[in-house]
């Protein structure tokens, strides 16, 4: 009974808040659409990164006078040609209602209604995925979320796909009807193809990684946002890497945005174990990382573009199968798997890069990735073409 009351209360609040915002949004639709304006939503304001960041950078190269409005929850930032606005605020609602282009990495708010002559580019925040998502695990989704998904998918004009599996997934499980799928690759992964040695040194300096090797531990979230599965002894991991692979190592912990605020309660950070959950652009960090350890996060499937080692550490595989299950079985990937610290130590000791590289290439060929370092430019070119057509109409 208590759970039912909580669910009913949440539903009432959801519809009440969206009702209020819908009224504001409707009023804003009486203002004209600005053909030079772009509205950007990355994780409802939780950062400045992912696909939208790289698309926007290309847009501003092609069209310097373009007006970019980015929803952002953090401290005030000053970045040329980008205006940051508080998510769900009246300003955010106004700029969404009057921007020619929408770019989003998540579902747009339920009150959003795309107008005629507006165009919506959905980049999604995942790429190739281990775990089942959206309609593929429909039973695990709330009714509110499903309604938001269905409403959002009807508005999308272009969905950016990084591989053939993504394309099929969007068609079959994302309630996506009628829009175009842009098979151009992953904009956020362009960085892995285009960095110079000087860029790499600058990023190492930025993250304090000069003169050391780096391992990133990036697990995904669990049901009820529990930390129980994160039982990896981080200090032991560093000792093992330094002993078996040589060099001095630093470990950066990157948690899912749902968990980042709570991490210090469960993880003892120091000068060698660093909290990286608030790093806004994880791709920059991955570009200078020597080893990635994750569980079921799609971050592994981005990182393969570096051709560097990925190890799966997952102590709760069977439990996770029952809760969420897998879209791609991790046993069928090239990544070695450990379910406890002893197995992880053995994987590190026995890791053979030549064998790993061969399996990795076979996997890449099987999936059919589109990444070539030009995805952002391809999406930006399409956006600029649409804006130019509107200005000339």
Outline the secondary-structure elements.
Layout: H1 2-28, E1 34-41, H2 50-62, E2 67-71, E3 82-85, H3 90-98, E4 99-104, E5 119-122, H4 143-155, E6 158-161, H5 164-173, E7 180-183, H6 191-194, H7 197-207, E8 213-218, H8 234-244, E9 249-253, H9 263-266, E10 273-275, H10 282-286, E11 291-294, H11 299-303, E12 310-313, H12 317-323, E13 337-338, H13 341-350, H14 353-367, H15 375-392
Parallel strand pairs: 1-2, 1-4, 2-3, 4-5, 5-6, 6-7, 8-9, 8-11, 9-10, 11-12, 12-13
Helix pairs in contact: 1-3, 2-15, 8-13
Question: What does this protein structure show overall?
Answer:
The protein has 393 residues and is of the alpha/beta class. It has two domains: 21-186 and 372-392, 3-Layer(aba) Sandwich (Rossmann fold); 197-367, 3-Layer(aba) Sandwich (Rossmann fold), CATH 3.40.50.12580. Helix content is 41%, strand content 15%. It contains 15 helices and 13 strands. It has a seven-stranded parallel beta sheet with strand order 3-2-1-4-5-6-7, with helices on both faces. A six-stranded parallel beta sheet has the order 10-9-8-11-12-13. Helix 2 links the parallel strand 1 and strand 2. The longest helix is centred in the N-terminal third of the chain and has 27 residues, at 2-28. It is globular, with a radius of gyration of 22 Å. The model has no long low-confidence stretch (mean pLDDT 89).
């Amino acid at each position: 009974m208590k759970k039912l009351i909580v669910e009913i209360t949440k539903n009432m609040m959801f519809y009440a808040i969206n009702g209020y915002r819908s009224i504001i949004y409707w009023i804003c639709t009486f203002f004209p659409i600005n053909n030079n304006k772009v509205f950007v939503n990355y994780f409802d304001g939780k950062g400045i990164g992912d696909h939208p960041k790289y698309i926007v950078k290309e847009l501003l190269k092609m069209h310097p006078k373009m007006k970019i409005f980015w929803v952002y929850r953090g401290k005030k930032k000053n970045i040329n040609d980008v205006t940051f606005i508080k998510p769900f605020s009246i300003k955010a609602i106004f700029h969404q209602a009057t921007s020619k282009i929408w770019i989003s990495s998540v579902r747009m708010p339920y009150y959003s209604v795309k107008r005629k002559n507006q165009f919506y580019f959905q980049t999604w925040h995942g790429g190739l995925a281990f775990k089942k998502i959206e309609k593929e695990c429909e039973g695990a989704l709330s009714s509110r979320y499903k309604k938001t998904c269905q409403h959002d998918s009807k508005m999308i004009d272009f969905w950016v796909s990084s591989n053939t599996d993504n394309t099929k997934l969007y068609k079959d499980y994302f309630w996506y009807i009628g829009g175009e799928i842009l098979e151009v690759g992953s904009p956020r992964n362009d960085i892995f193809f285009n960095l110079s040695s000087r860029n790499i040194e600058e990023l190492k300096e930025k993250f304090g990684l000069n003169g050391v090797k780096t391992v990133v531990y990036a697990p995904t979230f669990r049901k009820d946002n529990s930390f129980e599965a994160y039982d990896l002894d981080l200090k032991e991991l560093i000792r093992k890497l330094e002993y078996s692979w040589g060099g001095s190592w630093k470990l950066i912990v990157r948690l899912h945005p749902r968990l980042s605020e709570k991490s210090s309660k469960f993880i003892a950070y120091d000068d060698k174990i660093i909290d990286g959950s608030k790093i806004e652009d994880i791709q920059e960090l991955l570009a200078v990382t020597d080893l990635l350890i994750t569980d079921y996060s799609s971050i592994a499937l981005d990182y393969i573009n570096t051709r560097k080692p990925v190890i799966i550490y997952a102590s709760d595989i069977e439990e996770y199968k029952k809760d969420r299950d897998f879209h791609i079985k991790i046993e069928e990937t090239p990544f070695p798997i450990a379910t406890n610290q002893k197995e992880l130590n053995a994987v590190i000791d026995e890791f053979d890069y030549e064998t790993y590289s061969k399996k990795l290439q076979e996997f890449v060929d099987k999936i059919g990735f589109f990444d070539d370092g030009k995805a952002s430019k391809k999406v930006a070119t399409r956006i600029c073409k649409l804006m130019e057509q509107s200005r000339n109409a």
